[in-house]
Design goal:
This protein is 26% helix and 20% strand. It is of the alpha+beta class. The structure holds protoporphyrin IX containing FE.
């Protein structure tokens, strides 16, 4: 995550309130600074390099056993829009950036956990191409971010936090295509009275050769080319917490072993064949907001990092949508796929 400093009226104070301090560093400082510098349209604080947004179908596996038909998974199929992005600046190359995916489901009844969006009929999932997060808790994230944003010295933090340094190193891997990479939630969620992490696993072999990774924007070019040629599918899976000691809820650098608890497929995410470059589609995706708390109680996000995300994502989305003159409301229905 690349955070910039801005002269701020007060110094972020992780010891007093890590959630407020992280909101200050991500939204007030990072986004505020870019807005002052003339960024237009205003973008997300992180994952601000989009690769494309695609219409999809979220198809719950037919005949799913009753124990898995919890919350969202009690449906048969739902409309979805999916945004692929990298956690880097739009002017920088895609190579070795962290790739993320936001999935917005439509037509989900029931009270949502995100304050202000209780009556929304959407529900979101957010995953990235790494099975762990690079810090354990909200306080660790605050201290890491403070080191970069305020002290301008990530190295001092990384020297004394070798696990974070190692994970960040592993995250800098080459992703040939957004459509052939697995993604993980990294953080746990409730699943009724149990706990799970989410995983998206691509199905089937790649159906075209990826374009040259010398192109700084090769992930967008690849996504556009592949979806023009045909649909793409992912297994949507949950990995159950089967052991409290080795599968903690608030220690995000700890991988939940897939050998101990193999992920179970509950649904298939089918990205339809489409031209993602049609007029208005990219803008539609940029103006969406994905938030892990925009979900049902059955899927409540867990751990202190999730508590931070509730505040920071909502504040960031509100600021960028206000500055871009876009209503900060959830869509009622999925945008239709308008193709030439
Ligand atoms: C305290 C920890 C974290 C902070 C402060 C943070 C901050 C943010 C912010 C400010 C945004 C932009 C929100 C918006 O404007 O709509 C964002 C988006 C995103 N974050 Fe995080 N994040 C955190 C943890 C994580 C974790 C654990 C993951 C792993 C899956 C993750 C993956 C993503 C992705 C993929 C997006 C882009 C979603 C989209 O397409 O809109 N983040 N994050």
């Amino acid at each position: 995550m690349k955070i910039q400093q801005k002269a701020s009226s007060s110094t972020p104070d992780c010891g007093r309130d890590p959630v407020a301090a992280l909101k200050q560093m991500f939204v007030d400082m990072t986004m505020g600074n870019r807005i002052l510098a003339g960024q237009c349209p205003v973008r997300r604080a992180v994952f601000l390099k989009p690769h494309g947004v695609a219409k999809a179908d979220f198809i719950i596996t037919p005949g799913l056993p009753q124990e898995y038909r919890v919350g969202i998974f009690a449906h048969d199929r739902l409309d979805a829009w999916v945004r692929f992005s990298s956690d880097t600046l739009p002017g920088l190359g895609d190579l070795k950036s962290t790739v993320g995916v936001g999935i917005k489901l439509f037509g989900v009844p029931g009270t949502k956990l995100l304050p202000g969006d209780e009556n929304a009929t959407t529900a979101d999932f957010i995953l990235q191409n790494m099975d762990v997060f690079f810090v354990d808790t909200a306080m660790d994230m605050c201290e890491f971010t403070y080191a970069g944003a305020v002290e301008h010295d990530y190295n001092k933090y990384l020297d004394s936090h070798p696990i974070t340094a190692k994970i960040l190193d592993e995250m800098a891997k080459v992703v040939p295509s957004c459509l052939t990479s697995p993604y993980w939630s990294g953080l746990p969620y409730a699943f009724g009275d149990r706990f799970v992490k989410y995983k998206l696993e691509p199905i089937g072999p790649p159906f075209s050769a990826p374009p040259s990774q010398n192109n700084a924007d090769y992930l967008a070019a690849d996504l556009q080319a592949r979806l023009n040629m045909g649909e793409a599918q992912f297994r949507f899976m949950v990995q159950f917490q089967t052991d409290l000691a080795t599968m903690p809820l608030d220690k995000a650098t700890v991988q939940w072993s897939e050998e101990t608890s193999p992920p179970v497929q509950l649904a298939t995410l089918v990205l339809r064949q489409q031209d993602v470059s049609v007029q208005g589609q990219a803008e539609y995706g940029e103006n969406l907001s994905f938030n892990p708390w925009r979900t049902l109680k059955e899927h409540e996000p867990q751990g202190s990092i999730s508590d931070v995300r509730k505040v920071v994502y909502q504040a960031g989305a509100a600021l960028r949508r206000f500055k871009n003159g876009v209503p900060a409301v959830e869509p009622q229905a999925a945008r239709e796929l308008k193709q030439p």
